[in-house]
Automatic annotation (TrEMBL):
GO terms for molecular function: guanyl-nucleotide exchange factor activity. GO terms for cellular component: cytosol; nucleoplasm. InterPro entries: cDENN_dom, dDENN_dom, DENN_C, DENN_domain_containing_2, Tripartite_DENN, uDENN_dom. It comes from the Eukaryota. Residues 46-437 form the UDENN domain. PROSITE patterns: DENN (PS50211). Keywords: Guanine-nucleotide releasing factor. PANTHER family: DENN DOMAIN-CONTAINING PROTEIN 2, DENN DOMAIN-CONTAINING PROTEIN 2D. This is DEN2D protein. Residues 1-34 are annotated as: Disordered.
């Protein structure tokens, strides 16, 4: 497939911005930036592509890019190769379900996303809207996919609403809207950008796109996870993720898969999942589940039997439709210290009582706070165990750090956690980022 290093792993450069600002962690306050490193003022997106299903000689349909905006020219050789790899990978992720499509008269449009991680660890997100073009008679769905380096799902869903509205009129009306968007700077957290857009017969419209105040949570929807799984199961999943195990999520709907997996990865904040991460696995890549290394992947329920037939290492398999665990290692209940586990359960149950008092942003903040507090209690003392040399470089004192934990159960957990890739990456950043005013050697 020539897809090179895409969707391989979450590299260090794609890590949480919190790693670049570890001083925030002991206070338990989520950072001000998203888990994708970027600054306000960047382009909203790199490409808008339309992926359509084309009939092949054997009668199957294959996804192909039929429209691309903007067309890129004057690329250097290396950039051209990367772009070709990117454009080759996109159709697979827009139609991960395989090639068994038939033309239909009705289709409920769906929104989902995927992540492509390049060999250097940089990350691109594909925001997708799969819809049926307007018309009569049977036709095939197509996908509008916006490729961006920016992680802000609510904002891009709104952009896709505008794209879908224009698609019902004509493809030609989409172009000026996307051009206007491309010329607008990406707003800072809490700020709004206004796009002017002309629609035939409606006149000029002003579209306001506002970025959430807490940019750390703008790429996630914890409500989706709480709707599919009980707090008890969420803690089992968190315990597996925190020890960097293999996690497989199953659902038929692409939107549920991508939302829930992004939510699970976000529970690890201020740490970052540093391994294979594919929110929606295309059918042709199902053997990813045979990897001996950690992974977090989403697979459509229709492929369950094929997945279970694979020669897999131990993995946690979660059925998001039924809200249950299909396969487990067996020790998930014992990974997290019981006292903290109970506190987190109480916290999650409080936000999961379905009384609709909380907005989705409030739920995000409340859930994130419960998990951040867990890390603060467990490893929040890390900064006082970095020994600074006169030349300003730091060295983490792991033994002293673990020894400083008085609770035996907490220490048992931390001794495992310090061996994870996510903790190592976090500490590497902390060793580099001494804040001068702390000045004690």
């Amino acid at each position: 497939l020539g897809l090179g290093g895409f969707f391989a792993t979450e590299g260090k450069e794609g890590a949480s911005a919190a790693e670049n600002n570890p001083s925030r962690v002991p206070q338990g306050k989520p950072g001000e930036r998203s888990s994708v490193p970027y600054s306000a003022g960047q382009f909203f997106f790199e490409y808008l592509v339309v992926v359509s299903l084309k009939k092949m000689s054997d009668g199957h349909y294959e996804p192909k890019i039929t429209y691309q905006f903007p067309k890129r020219e004057n690329l250097l050789k290396g950039q051209k190769e990367e772009e070709e790899r990117l454009l080759q990978a996109i159709p697979l992720f827009c139609f991960p379900d395989g090639n068994n499509w038939v033309p239909v008269t009705e289709f409920t449009s769906e929104t989902f996303s995927f992540v492509l991680t390049n060999v250097d660890g940089s990350r691109k997100i594909g925001y997708c809207r799969r819809l049926l073009p307007s018309g009569r008679g049977v036709r095939l769905p197509e996908v509008f996919c916006i490729i961006s380096c920016l992680g802000c799902f609510g904002l891009f869903s709104k952009i896709l609403d505008e794209v879908e509205k224009r698609r019902q009129i004509s493809m030609a009306v989409i172009y000026p809207f996307m051009q206007g968007l491309r010329e607008s700077p990406f707003p800072a957290p809490g700020k709004t950008v206004t796009i002017k857009s002309f629609i035939p017969e409606s006149g000029t419209e002003l579209i306001e796109l506002t970025r959430p105040v807490d940019a750390h949570l703008e790429h996630v929807e914890f409500q989706a996870l709480l709707q599919q799984l009980s707090p008890h199961l969420i803690l089992h999943i968190f315990a597996s993720a925190v020890l960097e195990r293999r996690l497989i999520f199953l659902a038929e709907e692409l939107s549920i898969l991508s939302q829930c997996i992004h939510a699970v990865a976000a529970l690890l904040y201020p740490f970052t999942w540093a391994h294979t991460y594919i929110p929606v696995v295309p059918e042709c890549l199902l053997d990813t589940v045979c990897c001996p290394t950690p992974f977090m992947v989403g697979i459509q329920m229709r492929h369950l039997e094929r997945v279970l037939d694979q020669p897999m290492e131990e993995a946690l398999i979660v059925d998001l439709c039924e809200g249950k665990i299909l396969r487990a290692v067996g020790d998930e209940e014992e990974i997290l210290p019981i006292k903290l586990q109970n506190e987190m359960l109480t916290s999650l149950n409080r936000h999961n009582n379905n009384n609709n008092v909380h907005t989705s942003e409030q739920v995000n903040t409340l859930v994130s706070e419960a998990f951040v507090q867990f890390f603060v209690r467990m490893v929040g003392h890390y900064a006082s165990h970095i020994k600074w040399s006169k030349n300003g470089s730091g060295a983490f004192q792991e033994r002293a750090f673990c020894k400083a934990i008085t609770s035996k159960t907490n220490r048992k957990f931390v001794k495992k956690f310090v061996k994870t890739n996510m903790f190592s990456l976090f500490i590497e950043e902390a060793e580099k980022s001494r804040i001068p005013q702390e000045g004690k050697r």
